[in-house]
Records
---
Amino acid sequence: MGKIATPPLNDSTNGWNRILPPRRPHPSLQADILVDWVVVGAGQAGLAAARRLAENRPGDRIALVEAGEAGDGAQGRNAGFIIDTPHNIGSSLEALATARDYITLARAAIQSLEEQVRKHNIQCDWEAIGKLHTAVTPRGISQILAPTRKTLEALNEPYTWFEGDSLHQRIGFKHFSAGIHTPGAILVNPAALSRGLADNLPPNVTVYENTPVTTATLSPEIRLATPHGSIRAGKAILAVSVFAEQFGILRNRLIPISACASLSRQLSKEEQEKLAGLPSWGLTPANSFVGVTVRRTRDQRILIRQNMRYQPQLRREESSYNAVRLHHQDLFDRWFPALKGVTIEHTWSGFICISRNSGAGFGEVTPNVYSSVCDNGLGWTKGTISGLLIADKATGIDNPLITTYEALGRAAGLPPRPFRDIGIRARFSWELWRNRHEA
Ligand SMILES: Cc1cc2nc3c(=O)[nH]c(=O)nc-3n(C[C@H](O)[C@H](O)[C@H](O)COP(=O)(O)OP(=O)(O)OC[C@H]3O[C@@H](n4cnc5c(N)ncnc54)[C@H](O)[C@@H]3O)c2cc1C
């Protein structure tokens, strides 16, 4: 029996959640239950897996168990980009084939999410306005944007190149010097979308929120303990992201990274007029570790996402947010001098699960137990499609996209700690130093 030593501990800082109306969570588990399937984790992967399982097996009983509340894990703490083209693509034939596979999978995920948003009228500020991939320096332009442009051309993907004034006029500020706009990305309030997906699952899924799994036995029988009840299940899907190792799976393969984001207060009508450019936009940085993701949201706030850290202890202290907030306020004041007096209202952090080779933790990990983790920071597309496909795989549905997903690779092994920590920290420092111009 495996004890979960460090279950998720979500604080109440998530700005996307705090700007939404209060929501009543599904009741926590208060009994001992027997189900056909248990899905652990209500992130993008778990929500998609539970939904597809229910569609594939309408007569089965499915429990979806979440330690916190829907929309308050990483699924609701991200920057809200649903991205259909890979960020930085190599130019080899193999890299192009991988990019094509990614695009196919990402668009299948977007189609599935859009269907849910329309069907259930989920109010999540869904905006099909594309996104800009931006660079600050000539080096960022020549090393990242120019090759990305070439690759988009090779893939026959539409894009528009913006540079200097043409970029500044779109976004209303001058920090970035060039950007590639790709039209297929969607921008959302991620907490609103996650809540909406969790609240509109098929009737044979029972959602238990505020129900952390505290001990897990996966073999020979699946038995999970939670604070006020237990679950016995025929089969399980573990969609627990960076917490997977604690369930005894994917040991020494996953790299937990924490990232911070902030939202400003809402701009007044007068402030909106002062901020030139389009009424809403989103941009991702050439280097996602060093650079800054920025959005002008549909409800007229500025989002800043930055400050990534290797966090093997799976906790980021709330006390560290103040320094991040001050830094984000400083960036805001420098970039938007016309908006003097507009304050950063919310700062929070969340976990991203990456691997050394960008591979995933997808498949059957032990008889009757499947995992859908490690989307390498692309939760909305890779996480969603991974959840849908793991449910198909577990129920024996012959979906050709399973092979496409598996071709993206399996999370590679890492050395044991403390060698892993030393190696990752050294690599991180090198990346930060090498790309410091893009900060
Ligand atoms: C600041 C930030 C910005 C980001 N920006 C973007 C972006 O713009 N676009 C994008 O696509 N991705 C983005 N990401 C990444 C994205 O949020 C993640 O990749 C995605 O949420 C991972 O989905 P998941 O379902 O695998 O895991 P999660 O969303 O982390 O869900 C896993 C769930 O499992 C639950 N869980 C874990 N252990 C237990 C347990 N013992 N018992 C019960 N439940 C448990 C957790 O509470 C959690 O809710 C960003 C992430 C951060 C932090």
Note: The chain has a mean pLDDT of 95.
---
Amino acid sequence: MKKTIPGVCMLVGLLLTLPALANEGSIAFVGATIIDGTDAEPLSDGVMVITDGRIRSVGPRDDVTLPPGAEVVDASGKFIMPGLINAHGHVGATVGLQGNADYSTSNLLRQLRLYARYGVTTINSLGGDEVEGFALRNAQFSPILDRARIFVAGSVVVGDSRGDIRAAVNRNADMGADFIKVRIDDNLGAGEKMSQRLFETLVEQAHARRLPVAVHLYYLEDAKFMLETNADLIAHSVRDVPVDQQFVDEVLARDVCYIPTLTREVSTYVYESVPDFFSDPYFLKEVEPAIIEQLSAPERMSTVANSQAAQTYKAQLPTAMANVGALYEAGVRIAMGTDTGPPARFQGYFEHMEMQMMVEAGMSPIDAIRASTGVAADCMGQGDIGTLEPGNWGDFSILTEDPTRDIANTHSIESVWIAGNPVPGVQ
Ligand SMILES: [Zn+2]
């Protein structure tokens, strides 16, 4: 765990995250079907015991001994699955539909609590992170946590010279970043791509600082190049053309993870008309009516309908989805990510939509869950979250319907637990 932020920031972060009631002793969840986020099949009539925020034991009812004095929660007939992990999101300055409104501890905590109420218990914030985000990251390895965890990339690295690039990587590394984030596309021709030489310098410097590099990309050609440079994480779908065998072989050989962010594509064009989800109670329960009103204004809708970029992303979404299906079939590690956080990319709700789209792209529901839990944690290099195994943090959800039968059943989350503490306000 990284603890490079001075103690005073850690203390501030810790005080701000203190819940009213911390979990003490042990709590046992008894009788549920446990989907543990690993390759294992769901375990029916299981028991999971949490002690001091971490999983102490998990297994069939007959194999698990309850510690004396444990509080017992009857979860018969229900389903337990790990908290969702968004391997590419942003916890930043957004308020309503304003993107650059308020980067503050209170606004970050508001977002981390919103994610948590939707069962998203960890976000890999890939860019735009400042000292307050780092402090929240540092404060979260604690048995009193009850909001989503955040990992941070700091500022997206840009620069015109190798010296600039190295300095920018070093700034993030010195702050204690978990990832280095870089863009290698040209915004559909609207911008200039980072040169290959500067990109190579970036990867070299990040690796010298022992940091993985997450890459924003669009074109297959750039995805192949980032693999050649040894960059570590494909943070968006390849969207221009179908992936080819050479790329599939290379991703597999390097064991690089692929984060589709399909809902990011949806967010670019879907407000050209009134989206179906504007009438979904699961969406409406957390969104302010004023935001729906603004997004439904006819002038705004026609701006989206007339945006060439939006219409290109829309037209290329089937290619992106087919690529997810092909890479999944080939055995590539797919990690759930949404790019939520910027305006109108709704934190929490979109992660559920993303899983549905991953299933539409060809993944089985249980593999979409694995991609959103154990695999995502693995792709982030985080060993003690993502799966319900002894020693890991007790981050999970209890559902009333089976999400392996129908992925839409992730909407049936009844309660969310982080470090064994109930997240307030889930229903
Ligand atoms: Zn992003």
Note: Residues 308-330 form the longest helix (23 residues).
---
Amino acid sequence: MALYRWETHAHTAEGSACGRSSAAEMVRGAAAAGYDGIFITDHFYHGNTRPDRRLPWDRWVQEFRAGYEHARETGNNLGITVLFGWEYSWKGNDFLTYGLSPEWLAAHPETVTFTAPEYLRLVRDAGAFIVHAHPFRQADYIEAIRLVPESVDAVEVYNGGNRTPAENERAKWYAESYALPQTSGSDTHFRADFTGGIITERLITSAADYADAVLHGGITALLPEYGP
Ligand SMILES: [Zn+2]
Ligand SMILES: [Zn+2]
């Protein structure tokens, strides 16, 4: 039986101010680490984004999507699936947003003027799938832990950027407590930092395939898989 490995949370130097490797390097790193596909989820407008916020909206989106576009070119050459998403920040609480295109984003400048609850309603009504990234991370830039279980579709119970095991353990406790589906992501900012993601038996060729796997038991294992 074939098993496939997918990265759900990755940044690029093109899209994220904290990205340390170019999109092309990130895809080559994912391929070297055995992944079959990768979601590019750069920091969105209210987070640590790369494009200048003073740009007109269409120009801003054009620069923001560059990491994904470059990743896709490399992915096409290497046979690695590259899919688009972004990481929306609400004062340091991060919501991975999957399933909407760069074109949708360009047509929706209100994504940056809406409050976070309004944003979550807007994108989910438009068909987005929301994963609460590292919900229990504690860091200087995070004002408070904010839980909105009715406004998310799944919880990232492993995040490669968390500094303590307790931050991941609490996320798992949160998901279990609310019966929210669980997923995993490296949150990698560097070509060699791939630790998380998911294993499936079926190919993922779209965000809808990913949502389907998370929501309907299509995940064979969450990474990292700890041995006995
Ligand atoms: Zn970052
Ligand atoms: Zn991230």
Note: The radius of gyration is 16 Å.
